[in-house]
Amino acid sequence: MAKGSQLSQLKTALSQAGVNRSHSKKKKSTPLTEQAKVKKAAKLREIQQKLNPFDVKVTRPKHDVGGRNIKGMIGRPAQSKQAGMQQREHVLLKEIEQRGRVGGVVDRRFGENDPSMSLEERMLERFTKERQRASKASAFNLENEDELTHYGQSLSKLDDFDDILLPVDEDEDEGGQLDHDTVKKAHFGGFSDDEKEKEDELSPRARHTRYSSISCTSEYSMRRWSTQMRRQVENEKEENIRHELDQDFDSLRTLLYAPDPSSIDHDTSAKLPAPATTNDEDTMDYDKQVRELAFDKRAKPKDRTKTVEELALEQKEALEKAEKQRRLRMFGQDPDESDDEDAAGRRRKRPRGGDDLDDDLIEDESFGGLGAGLGAELDSDASDGDESEDGSVDSSGEEHSDEEVDFDGFGEGSQSSIDEASDSDLEDTTETETKRKTWRSSETLRASQELPYTFPAPESHDEFLLIVESLPDSDIPTVVQRIRTLYHHSLGPENKLKLQNLARVLIDHILYIASPPSPRMKLLSDLVPHLFALCRSYPAESAEYFVEKLSLMHKNLKRGLATGALEPEARTWPGLSELAFLRVTGIIWPTSDMRHPVISPARLLMGAYLGLCRVRSFADVTKGLFLSSLFLQYEVLSKRFVPEAINFVMNATLHLAPHAFTSARSLPGVFPCPDLRSASCEPLTIDKSKAKGLRFRKADLVHMQSKIDALGLALGLLERFADMYKSLDGFIELYEPIQLILSKLECGRLSEDIQSRVSSLQDKIARLLKFALQSRKPLLLQAHKPIPISSYIPKFETNSSSYLRRQDPDRERNEAAKLRHQVKQERKGAVRELRKDAKFIAAVEHNKQMEKDRVYKERMNKAFSSLEGERAEQKAMEREKGREKRRAGRK
């Protein structure tokens, strides 16, 4: 092969093979024969194969054996790929194009697909259906026509038979007689001998078919006639019922139009004349009754369900309106009169009366506080003369009563009106003035004592204290609810930040009201739902503030432990407000999560309190018991094991109940008890001589002063923890020491209530331990099928040749291996072909989409070009008009 580009190589190969033909004008090319054409095609094919060496792929075997042909050694990937593409275009592409298309001829004749019917039955049924179809489409049905017709014309309008295109025999006279064929065909035949002869010529099968068709036709006609008769009877019944209803309609109208005795409306329906009854001589016309029905009341549509935003806006507007009326009442104004506004939207000035206190001088709707209008009272006396003209009554006098006119004159201090008034009028005026002043003073006092309806959004806890400092505890939740309503997040983008600040303020206020010496737990319970709603709306911001409070409590704990856990002035145990905060935390946030940004730090902090703090007084015991009960509430769902809580409850029992243990070493189990029999814990033990008649009461954290109540709480916690942890694997190791300690408590000299409580707890723990021992099973080896010892017998092959490696002495096993190998190869080939088919289908779909896009683009370009042309013409026309206008202006 010559060197150079493929084009030069192709030219050289064609010239050497003598295939290229000269294009000289002098010599004319001679046509090639068939043999020459075949040779030329073979040479071209050979040149093509030599020109592109990648068209032929040769796989050389490792061991060449002479005379052996291995299938697949020489392959032509390009040709095979082209052949595959052509095959898919002929088969797969046609299937894609004809997908979803219903073609071909479908035989829908009656009985064709019913194998149970014979050929004669099919023909008979088809003939019957055809006759039925023809009878339905008959244009000369005499049953439904009023007069007889012939060829679409009435027979009564025909004078003779010359115009109806009926042939007449030439042999007959001109008497207008019809020929024999016409009478035979149109007048039902004459039943001649020819008909009998033709009927005799029919075969028995044909005669049977003919008579069967006639019987079927007659049966169908009878069935149709019976159906029509049944429908006619039903229509007559319905008509009779309708007639009866029309006759009884007057009596029904009296019931429909009966007046309502509870309420008589003066609308249009009440003004209608009374309906006619059956006793009237002239019954009302039906059309008149229908027109009267148009005046009946129709059902009004219900209001649609409002969205959350619309409800929030409605509640806010209601609060603002109520607050506006309260302020007006507080300043002695009438809200109904003050709400009147003119068309310009400004407030009308109310005419001044004799008892006016000049306290309605607020012209706009803004309110500057409780003392905003007090400065105007200083100048009221000096401005009475100037305001008298503005506050006088109109000349018409239609809007105000006589009493108001007298109040105005008296308020102005007119001496002439006083001289002219009689004594009785003066007394009435004074009495009315006194009543009005009394009413206004009472309204002002009541409005000033009424809870406001609008409040500013507090930015800090100090601002919130300024709002609620003079309010009772029962009104503070109402204040919070109104603040949440006024600053709903859907009413403004800045309200979201205000509600987040409100959540922080409520957390601080909960700590504030739970602080001693007078904790307000009722108010705390009322504020928790509002805080819960805010935390649910803004969980991330609220959780961040909760974590800040927990971090501060942890810092206080570390500071107290650094001072000394046994020092009396060290603040190690949490205060009452901190305990309330931990209780609120468990209410608001989910305590069953494995990890939670708020509950997990709170759980660790409570564990640190119970595990690191030392008992110094009875208050420390109560706080520890409260934390243990909090743990019980936290873990009621997740049932996590909290050893600090059980350890402290058991130590509290040892501190309070009398027992015989002298030191911590004598205690069973491994629970630490560093404060047992210490100097600070000795006074905590219950005195046997004083506890003879005492009983357990309900424990209260705020007012718990009795050791008996604390002991009852500790025993109850031990019982509830046992119920919660009875399913643990280590329940036996956990509660066996507790059972031994309870059995050695010296409760013999205590009250019967305490003794029965301790004994019942011992019995319950013993029963739970028994069940735990019964359910516990020792560890066993894994029960499984014995594994046989592996055999290492070498595999001997009689034939060591590589091409005989698949030969197996066992013929069946060898055939099975060959079949498995063949299935594997076929599966690979099928997967390969499916991938090629999918690639081909994707290419076809892509080409179709490209063609659609091209056509759409051409259409859009054409539309845009036409629009641009029209726009250009419009602009040119506008420029021409502008030039003409400028010329006209210059002229």
TrEMBL record:
Primary site of residence: nucleus
Annotated Basic and acidic residues bias: 57-66, 193-204, 868-883
Residue numbers spanned by region Disordered: 1-40, 52-87, 170-213, 257-285, 322-443, 863-891
Any one Gene Ontology BP term: maturation of SSU-rRNA
GO cellular component, one term: Noc4p-Nop14p complex
Keywords: Nucleus, Ribosome biogenesis, rRNA processing
Biased composition (Acidic residues): 356-366, 378-392, 400-409, 420-431
Subcellular location: Nucleus, Nucleolus
Cited Pfam families: Nop14
UniProt family annotation: Belongs to the NOP14 family.
Task performed by this protein: Involved in nucleolar processing of pre-18S ribosomal RNA. Has a role in the nuclear export of 40S pre-ribosomal subunit to the cytoplasm.
Name of the protein this chain belongs to: Nucleolar protein 14
